[in-house]
């Protein structure tokens, strides 16, 4: 066990190395029935079945209000706190959630939904059409008080307004046809909020005590330490079996795994695959993994067409291309994912609408890389820091990359930042040279990851660029309903992103991983990291 091994070495851990990776979907692994529903439920001191859970997360989400944060860890919290109008199934069809039925107009510009009449917010108020209309307007930036909307704004392309037909019927109107509308409306980022409660206190105060319709209610938050939720006993889907959930923030991987082994943690998400054998070797634990559209890439501060200067080095496309030629993706997959990851050559996940196979524009070639360095005026390389965070999906790629860059004369070192500082540096300050990017799109359509990262002014425009040609093609592709034409447009877009401008180097896709007590029942890994704790029990 890791605990025993580390105790033998005076608990000198590696301080958060490792990576969450990609691979084949598997059933919960382990021994002695790990992950099975037959495992015996632990009892409390009074002999009653346990009804609480301590859930380890590697970082603290910046916001808990629906729509304001997007990513793997925010996804987990939003899944517990909020609901959407509809849910997407694994086969791409849709199921009712807050809506019971829907109809799409012949021109694909109006989507009419009938709402459930038994949904209650966490504060006891009934959800009505007014709340849904308010939420969509808020996310889309239609409210005068919040014109910027939320991160969910990109999921509401061509959104015009929501018409309230009656208390439990709405019609969502769009100004233009948008192919992935239904998929976007099912995305967890578009959670429904209570209009009255939100307006009474405003966005900032609401964040201190967020309210949704989900299976769990917010209780408290201790910054950098934990977030506590309790069951919503009035949940329209039935009260959860697990009544209290504490999300414990654990940014050191080794200590988190030790806490899992000792029972201090009941579950740990985004655990590096390097710990898989440790977990599977412990009869008290179970391992979970499944394929994911999540991707890891190397990204550059380009400064193309913007008012914010790019990197001293990577404003030059030749130096970006040199790095691309230096990356050995196969070696990264082995080092960062224990061989479970998949090499990727496109910023579009291969399971998404709009994907078509892309070539590897920069197959590894150290001589070409060195020639580009010399051509750009750096025949002897240069010193640079690779910016990252301790979260496994970022850190191990960064750690492997610096060794590969040294092979072409770039003296790269790791620069590990606190999560908040890291996001500020790549989303607004643009004070970095080269960094590790990571993203798990939760709507299976090419429009979402590409518009969020590569459109001028996009919220997640990490690479600090504005390319009119790219914007024009992205606008054209999102409104195209013919799948063949759409794929052709996205192929052109990918070529600009990767070959012409080399904004990023896509490296690998990873799997969602988790490990927990073998006594937990009904645990299933999801591609979108939306662990459905309300389905679990002891």
The DSSP helix count reads 15
The residue-averaged pLDDT reads 90
- Measured by DSSP, the beta-strand proportion falls in 15-25%
Tell me the helix content. 25-40%
Give the radius of gyration.
23 Å
Number of strands: 18
How far is it from the N-terminal to the C-terminal residue, by CA? 24 Å
**Uncertain regions: pLDDT < 50 for 5+ in a row?**
3-45
Shape: globular
The secondary-structure class comes to alpha+beta
Q: Report the major sheet.
A: 12 strands, mixed
Detailed description of the structure:
By secondary structure, the protein is of the alpha+beta class. The chain is built from 15 helices and 18 strands. Helix 9 packs across helix 11 (392-406) and helix 13 packs antiparallel against helix 14.
Topology:
Elements lengths: L1 H7 L17 E5 L21 E6 L14 H10 L4 E3 L5 E3 L2 E6 L5 E6 L13 H12 L18 E8 L2 E6 L6 H5 L9 H14 L7 E7 L3 E6 L12 E6 L3 H10 L4 E3 L6 H5 L4 E16 L16 H10 L2 H9 L4 E2 L22 H10 L7 E6 L3 H15 L4 E6 L2 H11 L4 E6 L7 H8 L13 H11 L4 H18 L3 E14 L21
Parallel strand pairs: 2-11, 2-12, 15-16, 15-17
Antiparallel strand pairs: 1-13, 3-4, 5-6, 6-8, 7-8, 9-10, 10-11, 12-18, 13-17, 13-18, 14-18
Helix pairs in contact: 8-10, 9-11, 13-14, 14-15
Features of this protein?
15 helices, 538 residues, 21% strand, disordered N terminus, globular, 4-stranded antiparallel β-sheet, alpha+beta, single chain
Entry summary:
With 538 residues, this protein is of the alpha+beta class. Helix content is 29%, strand content 21%.
């Amino acid at each position: 066990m890791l605990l025993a091994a580390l105790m033998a070495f005076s608990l000198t851990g590696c301080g958060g190395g490792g990576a969450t990776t990609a691979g084949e979907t598997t059933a919960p692994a382990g021994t002695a029935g790990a992950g099975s529903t037959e495992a015996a439920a632990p009892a409390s001191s009074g002999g009653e079945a346990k009804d609480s859970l301590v859930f380890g997360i590697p970082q603290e989400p910046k916001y808990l209000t629906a729509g304001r944060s997007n990513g793997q860890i925010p996804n987990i919290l939003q899944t517990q706190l909020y609901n959407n109008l509809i849910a997407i199934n694994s086969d791409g069809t849709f199921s009712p959630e807050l809506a019971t039925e829907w109809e799409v107009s012949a021109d694909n510009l109006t989507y009419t939904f009938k709402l459930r009449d038994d949904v209650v917010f966490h504060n006891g108020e009934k959800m009505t059409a007014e709340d849904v209309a308010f939420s969509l307007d808020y996310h889309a930036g239609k409210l005068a008080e919040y014109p910027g909307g939320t991160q969910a704004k990109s999921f509401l392309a061509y959104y015009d307004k929501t018409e309230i037909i009656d208390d439990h019927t709405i019609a969502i109107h769009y100004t233009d046809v948008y192919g992935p509308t239904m998929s976007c409306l099912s995305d967890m980022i578009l959670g429904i909020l209570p209009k009255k409660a939100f307006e009474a206190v405003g966005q900032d105060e609401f964040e201190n005590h967020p309210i949704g319709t989900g299976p769990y209610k917010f209780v408290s938050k201790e910054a950098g330490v934990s977030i506590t939720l309790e069951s919503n006993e009035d949940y329209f889907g039935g009260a959860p079996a697990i009544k209290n959930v504490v999300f414990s923030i654990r940014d050191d991987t080794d200590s988190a795994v030790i806490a899992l082994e000792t029972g201090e943690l009941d579950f740990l998400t985004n655990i590096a695959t390097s710990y898989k054998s440790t977990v599977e070797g412990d009869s008290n634990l179970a391992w979970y993994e499944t394929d994911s559209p999540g991707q890891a890439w190397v990204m550059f501060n380009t400064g193309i067409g913007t008012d914010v200067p790019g990197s001293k080095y990577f404003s030059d496309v030749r130096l970006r291309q040199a790095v691309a030629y230096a990356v050995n993706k196969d070696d990264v997959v082995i080092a960062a994912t224990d061989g479970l990851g998949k090499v990727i050559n496109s910023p579009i996940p291969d399971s998404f609408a709009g994907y078509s196979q892309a070539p590897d524009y920069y197959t590894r070639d150290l001589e070409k890389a060195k020639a580009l360095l010399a051509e750009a005026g750096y025949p002897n390389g240069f010193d640079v820091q690779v910016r990252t965070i301790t979260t496994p999906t970022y850190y191990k790629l960064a750690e492997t990359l610096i060794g590969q860059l040294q092979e072409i004369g770039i003296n790269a070192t790791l620069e590990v930042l606190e999560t908040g500082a890291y996001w500020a540096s790549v989303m607004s300050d643009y004070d970095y040279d080269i960094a590790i990017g990571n993203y798990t799109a939760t709507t299976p359509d090419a429009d979402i990851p590409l518009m969020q990262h590569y459109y001028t002014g996009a919220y997640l425009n990490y690479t600090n660029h504005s390319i009119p040609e790219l914007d024009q093609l992205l606008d054209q592709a999102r409104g195209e309903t013919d799948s063949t034409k759409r794929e052709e447009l996205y192929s052109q877009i990918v070529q600009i992103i990767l070959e012409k401008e080399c904004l990023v180097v896509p490296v690998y896709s990873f799997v969602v991983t988790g490990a927990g007590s073998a006594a937990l029942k009904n645990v299933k890994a999801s591609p979108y990291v939306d662990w459905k704790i309300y389905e679990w029990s002891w």
